[in-house]
Amino acid sequence: MAVKGMRIKVNRDAIRKLLASQEVADNLTPRGERIAAAAGDGFEVTTSKNRDRVVVFVTATTTDAKLAEAEDRALTRVIDAGR
């Protein structure tokens, strides 16, 4: 239900700071590790900070893992493990 006349002012600097914080990294890294574990052997998790936020990548590092991703969508099938 909307309240007529109400305005919300977003503090963009605070949001940018939050997205780049260690707390976000501490939350995302275990999610990536759960996805990698559910996908199987040969998947690696990398946490880094881009220009303005923390990101986590799960990548296939072995030939078998790359084939599993290419042929069976190993990462796509287990994305819910990161919840």
Q: What do these coordinates show?
A:
Helices cover 48% and strands 17% of the residues. The chain has 83 residues and is of the alpha+beta class. It has one domain. The protein has a two-stranded antiparallel sheet. Strand 1 and strand 2 form a beta hairpin. The two termini are 29 Å apart. The mean pLDDT is 95.
Task: Provide keyphrases for this structure.
83 residues, alpha+beta, two-stranded antiparallel ribbon, 4 helices, 48% helix, elongated
Class inferred from helices and paired strands: alpha+beta
Low-confidence stretches: none
Tell me the number of helical segments per DSSP (H or I, 4 or more residues long): 4
Number of domains: 1
Strand order of the largest sheet: 1-2
Compute the CA-based radius of gyration. Answer: 18 Å
Helix content: 40-55%
Give me the count of strands: 2
% residues in beta strands: 15-25%
Please state the oligomeric state of the protein chains shown: single chain
- The backbone outline, from C-alpha atoms, is elongated
Order of helices and strands: HHEEHH
Instruction: Give a short account of the largest sheet.
Output: 2 strands, antiparallel
Mean pLDDT: 95
Tell me the distance between the termini: 29 Å
